[in-house]
Amino acid sequence: MKLKGESIYRMNLLNIINIKFEDFNSGTHYALFNGSQIKYLIDKNDKNFYKNLLVNQNSYSFKHKLFKIIIKCMPVNLIRFLPNVKCCSIEINENLKTNIKENLNKANKISNYILGTKGPHQKIVIQIITESGEKIYIKAGNENVKELLLMESYVYGYLKGLGCIFSTPNLLFTEINEDISLNALDEVVGEEAPLEFNNDIFTLYNDISKINLNNLRLENLEIEFEFSHGDFAPWNIKRNKGKYIIYDWEYAGIRFRGYDIIHYVTQVENLIRKSSLELSIRKGVQVAKQYVPYLVNFEDQYLRNLYIVERNKTYMVNDNEDK
């Protein structure tokens, strides 16, 4: 909140970090904005900030690709001259500080931050760089994301040793407190997944759909249900040495058959190709029917309605972030 007549003002995000905006001669971080929302907080002293933070970030939109090209050639001290950049200092929630010290048995430094899309499920990703140069990511949120992070933690534990064709990130620890919830994970490194829904991605979808948590069976329903990632999209998948890694399982659960296919196509068409949500969902249903013949038994409108209801129930967020 800006104080009248002053150039310094504060912003509290999810009770996790408190940001104090200052002039460029002070402060510890550069705040990079995407529109009115902070996207990155970059450590002013991190000379390898591009390699540490951005080189492994997915870049599907032209805007984000251009941003990475520009920033790759820029020394950290020149970031201040980019448009929509402010300088700030950061105070971290004391419980979070304690959790990091107690659970990470390595010399470490809190370096950069990535801020999720504003909304009820907003999270902050905090980058920890260890003495040996390893990168650990702390995904933190308030009470609104407690159940989501618990689900993600449970899925990572359940999938370990299950024999899936894909792998998942290494979960280091989970902490759930009254004011803050977090998952700590090793960095996910690899190539970007394709935008087009192809046979490789269908194989991943098919493997996910066969996961059976707690031997759950849903019978006597109008349409078949299956296990679902919940946010199955290119930016939650990477490929490393020929094997896919799937992450961000917060929305995992049981959904109608084909949901993840419709979602994958819808997200690409709507967020990357800027098609309307209605047309994006139409294409998603068409692609799902091509890959899952069972779905041909249902009218397109019925599947579209099922998807819209489930999508709205799951996310409750604004899907306008550049990927």
Give a description of the structure.
There is one protein chain. The longest helix is centred in the C-terminal third of the chain and has 16 residues, at 300-315. The protein is globular and about 65 Å long. The relative contact order is 0.11. The chain has helices spanning 49-54, 62-72, 94-103, 146-159, 199-209, 259-272, 277-291, 300-315, and strands spanning 9-13, 17-22, 29-34, 37-43, 85-92, 108-115, 124-130, 135-141, 171-176, 181-186, 191-192, 225-228, 237-240, 243-246, 253-256. It has 8 helices and 15 strands. By secondary structure, it is an alpha+beta fold. The strands form 3 sheets. A 10-stranded antiparallel β-sheet has the order 1-2-5-3-4-6-7-8-10-9. The chain has a 3-stranded antiparallel β-sheet with strand order 11-13-14, with no helix packed on it. The two termini are 28 Å apart. 30% of the residues lie in helices and 26% in strands.
Short description:
The protein is an alpha+beta fold and 323 residues long. The chain contains 8 helices and 15 strands.
Share of β-strand residues: 25-35%
Shape: globular
Number of helices: 8
Helix content: 25-40%
Spatial order of the strands forming the largest sheet: 1-2-5-3-4-6-7-8-10-9
Structural class category: alpha+beta
What is the total tally of β strands?
Answer: 15
Largest sheet: 10 strands, antiparallel
| Overall radius of gyration | 21 Å
Question: Helix and strand string, N-terminal first?
Answer: EEEEHHEHEEEHEEEHEEEEHHH
- Parts with pLDDT < 50 across at least 5 consecutive residues: 1-8
Average pLDDT across residues?
89
End-to-end distance, in Å? 28 Å
